């Protein structure tokens, strides 16, 4: 039983940190995608 708790403690922390970082990066990637799309629209209008 103690071995199971130790394994959960050792594996749980990295999993939680990884999920937290992925969620944060996802939001930043969405903002970056929106900015790139806006830039593309401005460049299209500028080209005309």
UniProtKB/TrEMBL annotation:
Asked if the Swiss-Prot or TrEMBL record annotates the protein with the keyword Transmembrane, the reply is yes
Tagged with keyword Membrane:
yes
Membrane-crossing ranges are: 6-23
Q: Which UniProt keywords apply?
A: Membrane, Transmembrane, Transmembrane helix
Tell me the superkingdom of the source. Answer: Bacteria
The protein's matches in Pfam families, at most eight in alphabetical order, are given as: YvrJ (PF12841)
The protein, known as: YvrJ family protein
Lineage, broadest ranks: Bacteria, Bacillati, Bacillota, Clostridia, Thermoanaerobacterales
């Amino acid at each position: 039983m103690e071995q199971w708790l130790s394994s959960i403690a050792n594996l749980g922390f990295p999993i939680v940190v990884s999920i937290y970082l992925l969620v944060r990066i996802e939001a930043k990637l969405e903002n970056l995608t929106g900015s790139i799309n806006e830039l593309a629209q401005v460049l299209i209008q500028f080209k005309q």
